Amino acid sequence: MADTANNVPWYRRYRMLLGIYALGLLFGGREFLVARTGTQVDPGSQEWSRMAEVIAEINPADADTHFLLAMEALQEGDETGYIQYMESALAKGVKHNNFLLAEYAHHLVRIQAPFENIDIALNTWRENHQLSFEIVSLPLGQGPASQQDYNAIRRELEAIDWIYEWELREPSGEMPQWLLLFQFEPAKEAAIRDVIEATSILLLPSEARSRLRVRCTNWEDCQSQVR
Fold it and tell me: Where are the domains of the chain?
């Protein structure tokens, strides 16, 4: 017999509301613990796993559930599972989850995905979350070896109109290579190629940087070009 409004279990009638509530508890609790104790509640932790299990039982087909499962898969080293869950969530047209959209854009940068894929992810994220203050991080194969090198990168980055703030961080114990951190204007279309070309200026001899620039077709194929 088909379920009616009177005999449907309460948890099925309100599963979407419960899913949203549980997700709010997850991220709210995470931020509370970070603020109060400095303790991160991250994917891979027992707290995250327990919450993911609860949400998966309440609303298994929801995009937010797939996002939580994707983050668990990533922590467990399951790259295939991560991509499957993330693409499943994105295929549902999700727009409300800032964490999901930002994480996917960051992941595409980490794995050096095609420029076009990264651009779509970055712009989808920021178009839907224009007040987000998330920072994009880009590991660099080569960093400035002198003040002259730093000035060259600064000139190139400041010429990109969609970037409004950036920072270069030197290699450290946690990150053994140079790292570029940047934020961008939500109202302007982002193109990761611009950043790759700007930081690749160091590939050119210092005396040639004023008359030449770098053009890249992908992460590996970059050529000099007259300005």
Answer: 10-94, 136-226
